[in-house]
Design goal:
The structure is a homotetramer. The first copy, chain A, is of the alpha/beta class. In chain A, 37% of the residues lie in helices and 25% in strands. The interface between A and C is large, with 39 and 39 residues. Chains A, B, C, D: Belongs to the Gfo/Idh/MocA family.
Chain lengths: 356, 356, 356, 356
């Protein structure tokens, strides 16, 4: 008899949801996708074509999908605005949850989900930070653990997107994304929590940004380029750069500088192993988007989440981190928009407001 | 109803066979592995653990496996010495065949299989050259097609293995591998046929080798380092380097130099995107073996072979090439062992023997 | 008759002064070093051995050296604390001046020198920022000029020194260096003025630092790692990283991100063109210090300064920039030490003090 | 009193001669250029402008120049055809000689010069192989000496020139250059002698070439792309690639593969440290010619030759090597043109002719 497979449903069949659904269908041997939900007709149409033939039941009602017989776990990749509510409902139904980041752009709402999950420790609840499942970032974690660079002291990390051919794309996106630091840098912040330890306490947060190519962002108080610094109380610093202005492709780079060495990830982005020598010189192409860079990480994420559910082992990243990363992202975004530094005492209590 | 999946059996469950079996089980959505064969008890034991639970029937008799009900295709990854015979038997049974390279180290035997396949054009018969399914090599083919480098004129290609911790490993391997040019450079030769065109006719072949670290190779007339040149009648040249002496890892590099540009593949090998900065300088690791470099290619190979069978489309590489690549490899090996150049007339007829 | 050579004296024969003296002696064809000064006996001893044999007169009194017959120009590379006074005295004597950076760690004193020079427009007075004479940085300037990246919008630039074997070295240095931003990042700031234009007006300045490996720095209110952001009123941002903690060598990196492309300098530092492949992987070495990276720039600097003096052409960098770079460096240092953001109005007038 | 400077004359003021003259004038502190010779009016005109003003005497008669009072050394960079004769005359006059490579394209004539020099051991006579003075190649020699790669076993080395805008340029050059292996690969051969040891004895030599873009080469029995293998009796192999077809620039690459590691030089050519990120991807430029790659080597060569003459120390490369490198180049060229392998016995005596 074939080993039992985790019975999974996918909520949301947009760009990312469809990718999750196909990953579980085709590249997650220990999981079986049995149901999928979307509130959107076009997405359901896609599901009819690509999922229904495999016996996957489609729903246009999330709650009904949660009632699907035998269902054990839900992968949530609907709009960010409903991530938290749908997670809460799944937890309520005693289902494991893998939710796309962020749980919410609102920190308190994130915390509510974490609190709900904490009450059901038998459930595996995880927020999907794909870089945690990337070979290179995992190698860095291993090397740091082995002492390869001494004490990690400074993180420089950037998430830089290719300019979108449609100038409205990122502007519309900014209406609900929570801003560049919450939407993009949250990955860099999560890496910082990974490499510095999740107990680090911010001491001060500063940020600046410009609107260089997408004037429409101003209406949403967002920026197409932003830099920020987070200083921590234990003598460490992280600085971030987020941009939607790259012409060459996606360029997510991380450096971890320790007291006795340094590790870099993706300092020299490349689409594949080809170089083209021509009159222009020597040229290599770069992945156009995060999928071109992180696709294998998403597959690994689905597999590791499945294993944690089936084997009742811990999920690979603390759920609480998902709140902390959004919280720091939100503070950076606040510092960015207000132009004012935010400060904290050693317990992590914010103290700048009192000063002003 | 779920789309029909190709019913596949895998012959051989050694290192490579096990990988093929798992690829088809887990990473080839349109195929279903239904049976597996091995003459080896340990391999069958592995099958009992990893395949039988999924309803896959195990056989210790290849012919019986071919009788498996509903079987449509066989993936052959047994010892090279039986590749050809097993391929012929599968073709005889009207089964599609994906056979690991080489079909045989004997050119005539290779040709026999190709001839048998040619008589059954409804069958998909393919010899697995994994680089044909590698993103980077495919990108090179596309760029050449688009004229990015003018006329491809010189190929430099190398297959270099990491030194094996067990000095006997490669020596024992050499007993039946056909020699470095047949075993290793056959990949580089296949790439040459791809990029220069499969109709190219050799004009002369020269080769030299040394035994630098594995004296045991001498008893099998093999070498741990070998270089060879193949000159073609249409004004092109390929030169190859094969080595089993690398300390840093696997290093398979290809350059294609055209009249108006150059393309390189994997000139800077890397295990992942991490660099370590230390007192020694800046260091990156390198894949330890071909699996670390080409794993995604093997997955793509299984999927594309499956698609060709199900959709009745041409297999992605001409079967005849498999003979031609082995033939050129065997000539290089002969030139290597004899120390004498081999020559051909414009029709491809060998002329050096007559001269001597 | 051989063309006239500029009659030059060098003040200061310490590490950098000796290099300047030898550059002028051996690698600056249109200049002739005729005199040198040092207040230090050891340095004079070095001069006796390396300069006197070539007919160069040594002085232990700076003012007397200025009286050297026929003297036309002075290269000043004494201690930073006397740069300004010695520059003023040379200007007073109607001599061209090439002064090592910084003119002073005090902005007003810098300005005094610039003012004095402005009154004698026939004199060439230049503050030596060696990167201005580096092939790569000059190539970037040319490419920006040609529109290769659209409007330069974000500069990321770092000056990172190798850990000194003597832990006291940088601590003693910090006593008078003005702090990491004035001493190290001043180069990155000067590059920013070059690529953004020297008329840019800061809007806000923030900085943070840690003392990770050199606790002695605390007594001088300095840091071994510091990051800072300068936001400019015309919608541009620069962010800097200065460190004395590298284990691998000197790593000065600059990125200029434009609205339509990006340029990087030295993202992959290397000592030479050698890579070593070993069990550790693939390793390249890195220059140990700024001399290993910028030596050819210093030679070009001496030659271009000489040409400007002899041909009465403008010096290659505006002297006023030297003040502005130190000013921004000093503000960054102030923000670093105080932990408070500094703000400016559109005219460049500082406004944060009034607010607090 | 200033230390004595070597009194040097330069013969030939063409492209390379002019560079030598300026190097000695401006960048070789211990040498003084006192005379220069050219048989060419244009070259002499250049000398009038750039050398005469510095008191350098110009000659249109080589022999008269040799009589220049106080002359100690000659740098010969006239046409290859007169290198040997002019070297002999200078040796005859008891002058040190630095002669551009090759001494001659004729091996016997090379040997004559070496023999003449051997009779005057007080003279420093050197053939200029610029790579011997390149930092990276010197670093490789040092690392090999230190055992960094075990026993050097395989050399792969290429000299690849950029396509010349004038298609006739290389064709005319081929009339007297001795062919690609003598003209270009002689550098790679010299490196082989350096890293393998100058006592290595060839066992067999094979070569092939194509005329891909410069049909005019055929009249001179030359090729625009050529590959060759030299097998040595002590179990080592060198293989070479020479090309005049690069579009991207000069690309001289060397790999030395040892039994315990590998060293590469210039595997990733670059003009400077700039990378340009654009829609095309990430691009770096490449030096256009050997001067862009090796200029600092030529300066070091002039300085080290000068030091050897003044200090009576050995010149940095054995003069006999210059013959051996040309000899191997000539054999490769013969194998290339004839299409036949050349063979030698263990004493180095050629045995293939006897066999045929």
């Amino acid at each position: 008899m074939a080993p039992r497979r985790l019975q999974v449903a996918v909520a949301g069949l947009g760009r990312m949801g469809a990718r999750h659904a196909l990953n579980i269908l085709n590249k997650t041997p220990r999981a079986e996708i049995v149901a999928a939900f979307s509130p959107d007709k076009n997405e359901l149409q896609w599901g009819k074509q690509h999922l229904e033939p495999y016996g996957i039941t489609l729903y246009d009602d999330y709650k009904k999908m949660l009632e699907h017989k035998g269902l054990e776990a839900v992968v949530i990749s609907t709009a960010t605005s409903v991530h938290a509510e749908e997670s809460l409902q799944a937890i309520e139904k005693d289902l494991h949850v893998l939710c796309e980041k962020p749980l919410s752009t609102n920190v308190q709402i994130c915390q509510n989900v974490v609190d709900a999950a904490a009450k059901k420790p038998h459930l595996k609840v995880m927020c999907g930070f794909s870089r945690r499942f990337d070979d290179s970032y995992q190698d860095v974690a291993r090397k740091i653990e082995q002492g390869a660079i001494g004490r990690p002291t400074v993180v420089r990390s950037q998430t830089c997107d290719k300019q979108h051919p449609d100038p409205d794309f990122f502007v519309q996106y900014a209406a609900w994304s929570g801003g560049v630091f919450v939407d993009m840098s949250v990955h860099d912040i999560d890496l910082t929590l990974w490499y510095f330890g999740s107990s680090i306490v911010p001491k001060s947060i500063s940020a600046n940004g410009v609107v260089a190519i997408l004037p429409g962002l101003k209406q949403h108080k967002d920026y197409d380029n932003a830099v920020g610094i987070v200083e921590f109380w234990d003598g460490r610093i992280a600085h971030y750069y987020a941009s939607r202005m790259m012409t060459h492709g996606q360029e997510d780079v991380t450096e971890i500088i320790g007291t006795n060495g340094k590790l870099t990830v993706n300092l020299n982005p490349q689409k594949n192993l080809v170089n083209h020598y021509s009159k222009a010189g020597i040229t290599r192409e770069v992945p156009a988007d995060y999928w071109g860079r992180f696709e294998p990480g998403f597959v690994k994420e689905a597999n590791e989440f499945t294993a944690a559910c089936l084997d009742n082992t811990p999920v690979p990243l603390e759920f609480q981190n998902a709140v902390k990363a959004v919280q720091i992202g939100a503070w950076l975004q606040e510092a960015l928009v207000s132009g004012k530094q935010i400060r904290f005492d050693e317990s992590g209590k914010r103290i700048d407001r009192a000063n002003l």
